[in-house]
Each structure stands twice: as structure tokens, then as C-alpha cells.
């Protein structure tokens, strides 16, 4: 950091830097770690620029983009260089991405906050990669735009890597491309999944649940997030589920009747259903609440009452 900093920063005493960090936290409403991160990325600007000028820049950008100042500051937390750029330049860049991604300037700032590369990249370059992703997935531009809003980092993938990912998922799931594309559109994060982990999880679910491939695939269709689990994470969840079922014949009978979406919900611990089973098992109350109730919205709280809040 010091190597790329102005001389005025390099000669600052640690006490002065600490004082400045406190001032940034106080004036901009930042947490210490946030202020430290921003300074590490833009030491000269954030340590030497008057606080009044930084606040004025945030207000100026907010007015130019038509967004709340808090949105500008939230973007600056991960891309502090946005505060150093000319307001007109940022305004043009945001307008271009707003048109390209078919979203509002506020949405663009959310994208920039999660994908800093968009600020250093050009809209024309992003457009070309959107076209490439559209060709790989055979999807219209509006769908690709929605995927990039959900996962801005997809824009950094080459066409070759995209094809590799799609073909890998086709092989793992033993499904045609159109089925895999449906999953990718539903959960764009799958484009960034580790294929080896995904293969291990898909096979691991079949072994854990003693279900056929078709049953597990139906689970994936309802909850593609399952493929983002690590093998270790699946093992931990599976072990917890097995212990709970071993403690209650009633739960075993009910579990065998569950459809794929409900089983996926248990594995992912949605609504705290698996946690509720573990809670009841630890207190020698396994089977006291039916799985159907624990899987329902608000089910664990209704079944356990005040004890669940503990």
C-alpha cells in the first residue's frame, strides 16, 4: 500500500492514520474494518482529502445518478475508486450499464458493489461477453442481463469456460443442455460452481438418501443450491439428519413419504427445519412434532414455542 502512496502518506505517523480512520468512521458512518479496507485501496485519496470534500463527492454522485447517498457510499465500500472518478464519467458509465443490463441506476450500483471489475471494464466489452454467454446458453439478452445482475462476476468468464461448465453439469446430472440451462437461469451462481464438488454432492445425495438419480435430480430442480454444497458440508448435514431419524421411528416413516422439494428443504435446513429436529432429538423429544409441521412456514416456532427462541 505504501509503495503506491504519495509521500505525504508514507511519512504519516501511525497515530495520525488511526485518527484519520476514526474520523472517516465518524463522518461517513463506517465500521473500522470498512474504513481500513477503503484506505488500503485508495490511501492517498482517503487519508489526504478533506472530509468535507469526500462528503460533497458522495452527495454530488448521488444527485447526478438520482440515487440515495447511502447507495453511493455502499458502492464505495468495495470500489472506493468511484469517489476519485469524475462525476460525469461515472454518470456515463452507469447510464451505459443501466441500458445494457436493463435496470435502474440504483441496480447498477448494486452490481458495481459486487463486481468492481465493471468500473474498470467498458460497456462494449461487457456487451461482447453478454453475447457470448447468450450464445452458450441460447438465451435472450434480457435473461442474460438478469443473470449478470444476480452474479456480476459471470462477466469475467470466457466462452470456453462457460461451455466447460455447462458440459460438466450436463455430464454430472445426465441431462440435456436445455435442462441444465434452466437450472443456470434459476441460479446463475451454478456457473461458478466447482464441478468436482457438484459431482460428489450429486452422488453423495443418492447414497445418503438411498434414492434414485431421478429423485435427487428432482430435488436439484427445486433447490439448485444443493449443488453449491461442499462434500464436507453435505456429510455434516447428512450425519445430523441420520441421527435425528435414528431417534424416532415416526420421523423415519414420515421421511419416507416426503417428496423431493421437502427433502431438499431438510438438507438445506430451510426455515430451521433440520435445526428443529436436532433440538428435539437432543431433548429426548424426537418425533414429538411431525415433519410436515416442522417443514411449514413458522413450523419450528409453532411446534417448540418459547423454547425455540432460546
TrEMBL record:
Its Gene Ontology molecular function terms?
Answer: nucleic acid binding
- Asked if the record carries the keyword RNA-binding, the reply is no
Gene Ontology annotations of biological process type? DNA-templated transcription termination
Q: Which InterPro entries does this UniProt record tie to the protein?
A: MTERF, MTERF_sf
Q: Which UniProt keywords apply?
A: Transcription, Transcription regulation, Transcription termination, Transit peptide
Please give the family membership noted in the entry. Belongs to the mTERF family.
* PANTHER family, alphabetized: TRANSCRIPTION TERMINATION FACTOR, MITOCHONDRIAL
User: Could you tell me what this protein is called?
Assistant: Uncharacterized protein
Q: Which species is listed as the source? A: Gonium pectorale
The uppermost taxa in this organism's lineage are: Eukaryota, Viridiplantae, Chlorophyta, core chlorophytes, Chlorophyceae
Amino acid at each position: 500500500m505504501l509503495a503506491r502512496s504519495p509521500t505525504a502518506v508514507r511519512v504519516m505517523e501511525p497515530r495520525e492514520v488511526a485518527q484519520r480512520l476514526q474520523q472517516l468512521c465518524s463522518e461517513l458512518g463506517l465500521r473500522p474494518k470498512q474504513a481500513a479496507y477503503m484506505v488500503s485501496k485508495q490511501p492517498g485519496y482517503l487519508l489526504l482529502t478533506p472530509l468535507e470534500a469526500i462528503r460533497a463527492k458522495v452527495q454530488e454522485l448521488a444527485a447526478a445518478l438520482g440515487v440515495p447517498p447511502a447507495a453511493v457510499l455502499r458502492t464505495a465500500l468495495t470500489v472506493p475508486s468511484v469517489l476519485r472518478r469524475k462525476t460525469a464519467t461515472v454518470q456515463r458509465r452507469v447510464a451505459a450499464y443501466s441500458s445494457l443490463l436493463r435496470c435502474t441506476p440504483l441496480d447498477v450500483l448494486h452490481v458495481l458493489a459486487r463486481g468492481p471489475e465493471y468500473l474498470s471494464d467498458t460497456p462494449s466489452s461487457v456487451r461482447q461477453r453478454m453475447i457470448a454467454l447468450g450464445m452458450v446458453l441460447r438465451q435472450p439478452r434480457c435473461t442474460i442481463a438478469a443473470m449478470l445482475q444476480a452474479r456480476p462476476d459471470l462477466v469475467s468468464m470466457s466462452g470456453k469456460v462457460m461451455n466447460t461448465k455447462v458440459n460438466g453439469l450436463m455430464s454430472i446430472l445426465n441431462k440435456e443442455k436445455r435442462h441444465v440451462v434452466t437450472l443456470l437461469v434459476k441460479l446463475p451462481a451454478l456457473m461458478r460452481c466447482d464441478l468436482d464438488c457438484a459431482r460428489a454432492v450429486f452422488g453423495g445425495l443418492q447414497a445418503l438418501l438411498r434414492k434414485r438419480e431421478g429423485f435427487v435430480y428432482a430435488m436439484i430442480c427445486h433447490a439448485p443450491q444443493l449443488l453449491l454444497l461442499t462434500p464436507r458440508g453435505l456429510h455434516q448435514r447428512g450425519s445430523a439428519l441420520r441421527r435425528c431419524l435414528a431417534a424416532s421411528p415416526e420421523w423415519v416413516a414420515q421421511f419416507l413419504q416426503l417428496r423431493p422439494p421437502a427433502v431438499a428443504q431438510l438438507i438445506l435446513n430451510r426455515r430451521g427445519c433440520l435445526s428443529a429436529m436436532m433440538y428435539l432429538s437432543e431433548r429426548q423429544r424426537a418425533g414429538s412434532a411431525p415433519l410436515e409441521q416442522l417443514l411449514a412456514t413458522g413450523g419450528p416456532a409453532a411446534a417448540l414455542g418459547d423454547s425455540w427462541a432460546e
